[in-house]
Design goal:
The protein is mainly alpha-helical. Helices cover about 60% and strands about 5% of the residues. It has 16 helices and 4 strands. About 50% of the residues are buried.
């Protein structure tokens, strides 16, 4: 565990490069970091939270059943046809058809179709990747005060995709999206306040925006809010509140929150001490590929009887397999 203290700065620097950002300290230093929304996508210009309503699988695209996020009008039918085409299993042809319908809807001025078309350009599906074209269509949607477009534009300015990187512009766009009620924009606005990017650092305001997104069910915001409670940054330190928010994020499969739960249970912080539960949560995080709790996992393995180790391992494997069997690809698209 001492190595985490020695490597804290290096870990934070590396986290910032991957946009997964701040350590939490228990009785030992924990290898965790706060993050912005949508950092799991395969392409630097396509954030997971930009694309949270349509999820691409191996041979098809799965569309979530949600209400339209914009007023009904011209272009609605074309957008729906684009979504229907994206659901079919023959990806190459049907994604080209989806692009055709999204473009028709976009040219009729329907904001969700404009956002969908922009994501196609960013992801390079049925077209060459083109951040400039994506920028154009997102700006068209933003002119209609379409909340989702503000978040997506903020991502482009934050990452310098098709534009020069500009945290102040990203802040302005996330603010507009957050004020309009978009949880992903609220999450990232909190992140900018948290880190002092494009605005003066203010962790009390960061906590407020994280809470808004967390209450909407954004796992990363739940984790980040728990981190602030655990560190007493922007909020009065409250281990039990931290535990509750980590628990909510962990239930959604957030590996970092699962590592934190493992530490909290192992140390009896914010909850009753339970070494078996600690071992289980650290194990399932490790199965997800998050190795940051492995040292504690080994320590707990030395303390627990064999039968308790076997029980905790079985539970971790069951939890991992139940989530893994239904989890979509991290690269997906749109609204």
């Amino acid at each position: 565990m001492d190595s985490f203290l020695r490597n804290r700065s290096a870990l934070l620097d590396a986290s910032r490069l991957s946009i997964l950002l701040v350590m939490v300290v228990l009785n030992v230093a924990l290898p965790m970091a706060r993050a912005q929304a949508g950092a799991e996508a395969d392409d630097a210009c396509v954030a997971g939270s930009m694309t949270n309503l349509i999820s691409r699988r191996v041979n098809s695209v799965n569309v979530s059943a949600v209400a339209a996020a914009a007023p009904q009008g011209e272009g609605v039918r074309e957008n729906e046809k684009g979504i229907a085409a994206a659901q079919a299993s023959e990806n190459t042809r049907t994604l080209q058809e989806a692009r055709h319908w999204f473009e028709k809807g976009a040219r009729k001025g329907y904001a969700p179709a404009q956002v969908n078309l922009a994501i196609l350009f960013l992801a390079g599906w049925a077209t060459a990747p083109n951040a400039g074209a994506a920028l154009y269509w997102l700006r068209e949607a933003a002119r209609q005060d379409h909340a989702l477009a503000f978040f997506d534009l903020g991502i482009l300015y934050m990452r310098g995709c098709g534009v020069r990187q500009d945290y102040r512009e990203a802040f302005s766009l996330f603010q507009r999206g957050a004020d309009a009620g978009d949880p992903a924009a609220q999450m990232n606005l909190g992140y900018l306040y948290d880190q002092g990017f494009g605005v003066a650092q203010d962790r009390a305001k960061a906590a407020g925006w994280y809470r808004a997104a967390a209450e909407s069910g954004v796992a990363q915001a739940q984790y980040n809010l728990g981190d602030l409670y655990a560190r007493g940054e922007g909020l009065v330190r409250d281990d039990h509140a931290a535990f509750i928010w980590f628990q909510k994020a962990a239930a959604q499969g957030h590996s970092g929150a699962r590592v934190m739960l493992g530490y909290f249970y192992a140390e009896g912080r914010g909850t009753a001490k339970d070494l078996r539960a600690g071992y289980m949560w650290l194990s399932v995080a490790a199965l997800q590929g998050d190795q940051r709790g492995n040292a504690m996992l080994r320590d707990l393995g030395d303390q627990l009887p064999v039968e308790q180790l076997e029980e905790s391992t079985k539970r971790a494997l069951s939890l991992f397999e139940s989530r893994n069997s239904t989890s979509p690809s991290s690269l997906s698209f749109v609204h």
